Amino acid sequence: MSRFFSHKYDALTPYTPGEQPKEKKYIKLNTNESPFPPSPKAVEAAAKAAASLQLYSDPTAAKLHEKIAALYEVDAENVLATNGSDEILNFAFMAFCDKEHPAIFPNITYGFYSVFAELNGVPYEEIPLKEDFTIDPVDYIGQNKTIFIANPNAPTGISLSLDTIEDIVKSNPDSVVVIDEAYVDFGGVSAAPLTKQYKNLLVTGTFSKSRSMAGARLGFGIACKELIGDLNTIKYSTNPYNVNSMTMAAGIATLEDEAYTQTNCQTVIENRSFLQKELAKRGFVMTDSKANFLFAAHPDYEGKDLYLALREKGILVRHFQKPLIDKYLRITIGTKEECEALLAAFDAIFSQTKEV
Ligand code: PMP
């Protein structure tokens, strides 16, 4: 740290992204990316947009907003596209949290929430999950604090029903409830329709998972036009051209190829169910994941040992050295072949350790 770094960041511990190794070819099951390439139409559209990179991108993202609005059956004025959903989550911490509106979120959830709270000097409280890793909705009823819930949650993959989300939103009329739907397309139900009814609900989404565009950085928020207006104030005060023109073109083309996305989601769901059954046969315990990953622990092994043994065999999964979840691995659902390679690696690890 230099002597110039502001003391306001003394307590800030930055988010640690999953590894993106360059030195060796791994089977990457560690950052919940899609195992499938983007739609060929998106690749073509991005390449075409590259020819006009001398121009700024459209700060209003008009066409992209229209397409996202059509998918979620809302109006374009209810949508804001951002540089990944991380950006809209940060905007939400900036716009809707302060000393009068502290943030609350589960103690086991997306690690960036606490980082955004620290970054923006927002007081926050982490609410313990129940022992089975589920969220107790009662903890979020009538709190009148700014609530952040990933649905499905990460890294557990467990999802809350729409009725429960509605109860939480309804009972906190004077504060904003943010539902982070990064993983909703793999078996969850979107709360986006509720934004028509509730003026305190912001639903966020991403093109990084189901739409195979993690590297393009495209996320979005859906809310009533007043909340979108507030988020736009933050956007135009930080980075008006937050979505670059190649990403914008790729996002539009992806939404014009929705069948491609749906087919891929279906395959991920099938592979998840295959992997879940096979891991259970090998003694793993798992949460009921509705996301593109499984959260699995083996009673006879430490999470870290399994993570390291898999790494040795060229397979990356995510392990969090955190109390309560350090026995678990978060395993992204890959192609069928990748799932089979993972199972073969576990079999080899288990037979090696038995022999010792
Ligand atoms: N929310 C959750 C729960 C996530 O796991 C992630 C990705 N790691 C994000 C949001 C952010 O994703 P992106 O910025 O790629 O849209």
Rg (CA only): 21 Å
Q: What share of residues are in beta strands?
A: 5-15%
> Globular, elongated, flat, extended or rod-shaped: what is the shape?
globular
Largest sheet: 7 strands, mixed
Portion of residues in helices? 25-40%
Strand order of the largest sheet: 2-8-7-6-5-3-4
- Name given to the CATH homologous superfamily of the largest domain: Type I PLP-dependent aspartate aminotransferase-like (Major domain)
The total of helices stands at 10
- CATH topological fold name of the largest domain: Aspartate Aminotransferase, domain 2
Quick one: CATH class of the largest domain?
A: Alpha Beta
Low-confidence stretches: none
Distance between the termini: 46 Å
Series of secondary-structure elements, N-terminal to C-terminal: EHHEHEHEEHEEEHHHEEHEEH
Domain count: the total is 2
Number of strands: 12
In the CATH hierarchy, what is the architecture of the largest domain at level 2?
A: 3-Layer(aba) Sandwich
Question: pLDDT average, as an integer?
Answer: 96
Bound molecules: 4'-deoxy-4'-aminopyridoxal-5'-phosphate
Look at the helices and sheets and give the structural class: alpha/beta
